[in-house]
């Protein structure tokens, strides 16, 4: 239909993609073979059968197991190259890519292998396909702030190879304020700041991401609608929410896409965007998120244009790039 063609073809930015969540089962098994890593699954089909999630933690356990095959700079390059090729097909003109260094440094992988592999894939994709991309380093919130500070120090020799920092992993019990000092240091370093908040967690976590961490965007943020004063704050300050519909469905935040609150977020005047989160695990890349969300909720062309415009506007690309896209 014309609407589905519009959703697929319109230029868009992807602002919420965990690169380790783009690892397809076939690539997981290929890298396991190449690196002689033993997996607790017999084959691709057995791994896929394990993708039956009940909440965020049940997903994270399998996501960290999948990432265990990444050892060398070339592995990180291959993963990011595959994602960026896929994003170009979905008419993504700008990608801001999360990575989880602590998942890898904890297994003895050097920080430089992680960042250099991802960085080379970004520069080559810009050269080969014209997509604009940058990296955002995420701290794992189930670990301590001291461990986040060590991670930041390890990344400092490569400071020019990522544009910002984020906060991800298990939300409940790990509020943003646990990371106040490390985010203050990142802010002083001129890094852009984002954090996951209000995925499973309460509106209070979104407030502290804004007030304590001073983030510029909120990842997920769908629980904001429970707090009218928070909605007013997000709308007034034009703080973008990077919403991930298929992720929310798979992790039972909105078990039925028809009940997703993205239409209400837009109606409330919020700068909502559509993103894929972990596309290899949640059943689709960014265009699949758009198509399934619109099919389920009955939104139309007006909302499609609004979401594409929001994504480009909320990106950390330079003003000249944004002007060229919009
Ligand atoms: C994640 Cl869906 C989600 N939530 C929090 N942290 C994550 N890391 C990767 N995917
Ligand atoms: Zn996420």
TrEMBL record:
<dbReference type="InterPro" id="IPR028892">
    <property type="entry name" value="ADE"/>
</dbReference>
<feature type="site" description="Important for catalytic activity">
    <location>
        <position position="220"/>
    </location>
</feature>
<feature type="binding site">
    <location>
        <position position="18"/>
    </location>
    <ligand>
        <name>Zn(2+)</name>
    </ligand>
</feature>
<feature type="binding site">
    <location>
        <position position="277"/>
    </location>
    <ligand>
        <name>Zn(2+)</name>
    </ligand>
</feature>
<keyword id="KW-0546">Nucleotide metabolism</keyword>
<dbReference type="InterPro" id="IPR032466">
    <property type="entry name" value="Metal_Hydrolase"/>
</dbReference>
<feature type="active site" description="Proton donor">
    <location>
        <position position="199"/>
    </location>
</feature>
<protein>
    <recommendedName>
        <fullName>Adenine deaminase</fullName>
        <ecNumber>3.5.4.2</ecNumber>
    </recommendedName>
</protein>
<feature type="domain" description="Adenosine deaminase">
    <location>
        <begin position="11"/>
        <end position="326"/>
    </location>
</feature>
<comment type="similarity">
    <text>Belongs to the metallo-dependent hydrolases superfamily. Adenosine and AMP deaminases family. Adenine deaminase type 2 subfamily.</text>
</comment>
<dbReference type="InterPro" id="IPR006330">
    <property type="entry name" value="Ado/ade_deaminase"/>
</dbReference>
<comment type="function">
    <text>Catalyzes the hydrolytic deamination of adenine to hypoxanthine. Plays an important role in the purine salvage pathway and in nitrogen catabolism.</text>
</comment>
<feature type="binding site">
    <location>
        <position position="278"/>
    </location>
    <ligand>
        <name>substrate</name>
    </ligand>
</feature>
<feature type="binding site">
    <location>
        <position position="196"/>
    </location>
    <ligand>
        <name>Zn(2+)</name>
    </ligand>
</feature>
<keyword id="KW-0862">Zinc</keyword>
<dbReference type="Pfam" id="PF00962">
    <property type="entry name" value="A_deaminase"/>
</dbReference>
<keyword id="KW-0378">Hydrolase</keyword>
<dbReference type="InterPro" id="IPR001365">
    <property type="entry name" value="A_deaminase_dom"/>
</dbReference>
<feature type="binding site">
    <location>
        <position position="16"/>
    </location>
    <ligand>
        <name>Zn(2+)</name>
    </ligand>
</feature>
<dbReference type="GO" id="GO:0016787">
    <property type="term" value="F:hydrolase activity"/>
</dbReference>
<keyword id="KW-0479">Metal-binding</keyword>
